[in-house]
Structures are given as structure tokens and as C-alpha cells.
Amino acid sequence: MLEIVDKTHDESRQGEAVAPQAGDTRVYTKKFYIESYGCQMNFNDSEIVASILNKEGFGATRNAEEADLVLLNTCSIREKAEQTVRKRLTEFKKTKKNRPGFLVGVLGCMAERLKAQFLEQEKLVDLVVGPDAYRTLPALIEEAETGQKAINVLLSREETYADISPVRLNSNGVTAFVSIMRGCNNMCAFCVVPFTRGRERSRDQYSIIAEATDLFENGYREVTLLGQNVDSYYFVDEQKDETVTFAGLLEKVAAISPLLRIRFSTSHPKDITDDVLFAMARHENICNYIHLPVQSGSTRILQLMNRTYTREWYMKKVDRIREILPDCGLSTDIITGFCTETEEDHQDTLAVMEYAHYDLAYMFAYSERPGTLAARRYQDDVPEEVKKRRLAEVVALHRRHTLESMQQDVGKTFSVLIEGVSKRSEDDLFGRNDQNKVVVFPKGNHQKGTYVKVKIEACTAGTLLGKVVD
Ligand code: SAH
Ligand code: SF4
Ligand code: F3S
């Protein structure tokens, strides 16, 4: 796994606790502790929650022991993600016994999926707040403080939290997430997100550009535009009679400064347009990296998954990307053992991997989620050990591909945005190249937040190693 991951749903970051914002000198009367699970959108939501809580006099702490309020911002994407949260909640329940007044709340996708269950049946928490209800947190906390069970899991068709400036938690001061939309209108048969996040809605372009500009002025040099399906971004400005698509938005954010890098995640193969690829080609600061989840390489399975593209369509998209952006980094998500998947379907997935030769892949065994199309319509009939064996094969092939992709970069020179000191050595810095690969090099006099040209001399499976050249 790379040192820094760039995607909307990386569970390796499960349970990350946030630190207070550097330089915050306000005096707070109470403390909150928040742990985030799941995708980057959830992490970004925790920053919105922090902003709302700061205004209420709650300061962030990294130490749950000294908090008045503990919040878990949760993920429902796979069963395992939910189990991890349950374990954590049980631990906090024990703490509650010894500390009167100590409140525990569950936010995010599990709150939305399970609604009152944690409050009423399991009696694990004091607060349950769904992803579209964070503005009501102050009122809910007040209710909970008086001993009432506080819950708001209403989903909204409009809420984008556009006017709330996220408080950058755990920030390196160089890279930041900017949510450009919420929810998802696709109905991939395996996926719980449309149920936990509601209908898709795009945030207005002005607040996005203002947030990115503000980040740049505060020293940030990279923004990742976030959405479950960024390519369907669509904003209509009736006053100006203007319609902004994702390609248009990319161009506008890119125009803020050539020194501000733009990334985005996630693209749906059915929606990414040539216009987006041309915008990427036109602007050097829009990074040549696309996360294009394939899920399966079998057309039959893709149809069952309701992904609305075929294996051939996907491969043509890959061709088009390579044609317009020859040095573009490409990553994907793959699910093994989806309902009815045969050995032949699995071989098709391996073949598409050979074709696309991904630089990075996130691979999962299918986990049935209650309420999804697949749970209602199909049988989860691939035995667990078959799912796991196929997953192991997919992972092994991917390992070979990433290593080859890293080796091909040895000898090349890349522009690298420095993000900080390497985790492995105080004497080294690390950053990423355009294609999102982590690059480590000796420190010299170089500073975080600046660009350097690095010539690659060696690599590991996850990291390029090099030296700064003029
Ligand atoms: N919006 C993004 C992904 C959201 S979920 C997209 O459309 O690609 C992130 C990834 O988790 C998915 O791409 C999928 O590979 C995986 N995933 C989602 N539901 C899953 C399930 N029920 N079991 C296993 N993996 C799942
Ligand atoms: Fe889930 Fe599909 Fe929406 Fe992605 S596009 S969030 S996989 S329903
Ligand atoms: Fe994200 Fe997990 Fe919800 S992936 S949208 S936090 S289910």
C-alpha cells in the first residue's frame, strides 16, 4: 500500500483519529474526539463536522480519554467495516459506565443504514446522525446532554454543506479534499452507498472555486475533488444561463494557479467524457491520473452488477485515455466472487487487468449488503473460500503489474510535490508525481509544499526512490 492513498474508500485508513488544527488559538469549553472510517468523503465530512462543533465551543482532541464527546464517522461498504465500528462502540460503552456526562455518537453511513438500532435495541450510543444531518448536531448534542436519545437520519436532496468551511484536521498543509457533490444516483447492485448517502446533488461551482482558492492562498498546493461519481457533476447557474459539467469545473479550478495541482476521484467508466480527458491534456496542473473502477472483467457479471458498460466498452475507455493522455496513471477497484461468478468470469477479470495494466488497484471479496439490489435479487452463492482464492489471484497479478509499472519509471524524471518527511527516514522527504506514485528522496534544503524534479534511481513495490536534479 502506498504511503499516501488517493481514493474515496480506502479502509486502510480506518479509525484514524483527528488532531486539532494547527494554529487554532480559540478557547473551547468542551472537547470532542472524532474517528473516521471509510472513504475520503467521510474524512472530508468529519472536517465539516469539526467546523460545526468548533462554532459550538467544542475543540478537537486526539485523546478520547479527555473528550466530552466521542464521534465515530462510520462506513457500511463491507461487513468488515461495520464490524470494526461495532467493536469500537463496545469499547466506548465501557468507558461510559465510569464517566457520567460522556457522550458517544455515531455519524455517517452506518448511522444512516441502521437508524435507531444503535440507540434503541443495542443501546450503544447517545447520538445517531446521518450524513445529511450534520447541521443539526448542536441541537442533537443538547438533547443528548439532557439524557434523551438524539437522532436525525433524514436524507436531503439539496444539502451540500457548500457554505461550511471544513476545518482541516490532520492536515499536512499541502494537500486537501474538496467535496464537489454528494450522494449517488447509480444503482450498482452490490453497493450500499445510494441508500446511505441518498440522491446525487452537485455543489455550486462558486463555493468550490472559493474553497480551492482559499486553500491555495493558505499554502496548499493540491486539491482532490471528491464525489462518488465526479463525471456526473452538473451545475446550472440560472442567472448566468450557464451549465457547468465536470470538465468545465476542472478547467475553472485549474485556472486558480498553475502551482495548484488538481486530482479527482472517483470516475465511473460510463460517464468519463473526452472533454474531461482533453481538459486534463490542456492543463498541466490537472494530474494525469484516473481512478476508473472496473469491478469485473466479465460482461455478464457487469450486467448483473448494473454497471451499465461492457468489458469492451471499458477497454475502449482505457484505449481512449492512453490515446489522449499517454502517460496517464490508471487505477481501479475489483470485486471477486460476486453472485454467480464462474471461473470463466474470473478469468475475464484477470484478462482485463492484463489489458489495462493498472498502476494501483483496490481489491475486495464480495460482501453482501442488506437492502442492496444484489441482496434482494440474487443469491450470494460463491463460497467464501472461492471468493478468497480468486481475490488472492487478482492480488498476485496486481502485485506483478504494480512492480512492473514502478520499474518502468526507473531512469525517468518527474515533477514531485513535496508533502513531508518520509515515514521511514528523517533524512528523506516524500511527495507524489503526477501519476500519483509516491517518490522518496534525500532531504537537502527542500521544503514541504514546493515542487522539485526528481530522477528515479530505484523502486520498491510501492515507492519510487530518487534524487533531486536541477
Ligand atoms: N463510487 C465509487 C466507489 C464507491 S465504493 C465507484 O463507483 O467506483 C468503493 C469500492 O468498494 C467500489 O468500487 C467496490 O469495488 C467496492 N465495494 C462496494 N460495495 C462492495 C461490496 N458489497 N462488497 C465488496 N466490495 C464492494
Ligand atoms: Fe456505489 Fe456504484 Fe454509486 Fe459507486 S457508482 S457509489 S459503486 S452505486
Ligand atoms: Fe464512503 Fe463507506 Fe459511506 S465508502 S460513502 S463511508 S459506505
From TrEMBL:
Residues 1-14 have a biased composition (Basic and acidic residues). GO terms for cellular component: cytosol. Residues 1-20 are annotated as: Disordered. Pfam families: Radical_SAM (PF04055), TRAM (PF01938), UPF0004 (PF00919). Residues 407-470 form the TRAM domain. Residues 170-404 form the Radical SAM core domain. This is tRNA-2-methylthio-N(6)-dimethylallyladenosine synthase. GO terms for molecular function: 4 iron, 4 sulfur cluster binding; metal ion binding; tRNA-2-methylthio-N(6)-dimethylallyladenosine(37) synthase activity. It is an enzyme of class 2 (transferase). Its cofactor is [4Fe-4S] cluster. Residues 30-146 form the MTTase N-terminal domain. It comes from Chitinophaga cymbidii. Binds 2 [4Fe-4S] clusters. One cluster is coordinated with 3 cysteines and an exchangeable S-adenosyl-L-methionine. The lineage of its organism: Bacteria, Pseudomonadati, Bacteroidota, Chitinophagia, Chitinophagales. The gene is miaB. Keywords: 4Fe-4S, Cytoplasm, Iron, Iron-sulfur, Metal-binding, S-adenosyl-L-methionine, Transferase, tRNA processing. [4Fe-4S] cluster 2 binds at C184, C188, C191. It catalyses: N(6)-dimethylallyladenosine(37) in tRNA + (sulfur carrier)-SH + AH2 + 2 S-adenosyl-L-methionine = 2-methylsulfanyl-N(6)-dimethylallyladenosine(37) in tRNA + (sulfur carrier)-H + 5'-deoxyadenosine + L-methionine + A + S-adenosyl-L-homocysteine + 2 H(+). The keyword Cytoplasm applies. The keyword Membrane does not apply. Its EC number is 2.8.4.3. Monomer. Transmembrane segments: none annotated.
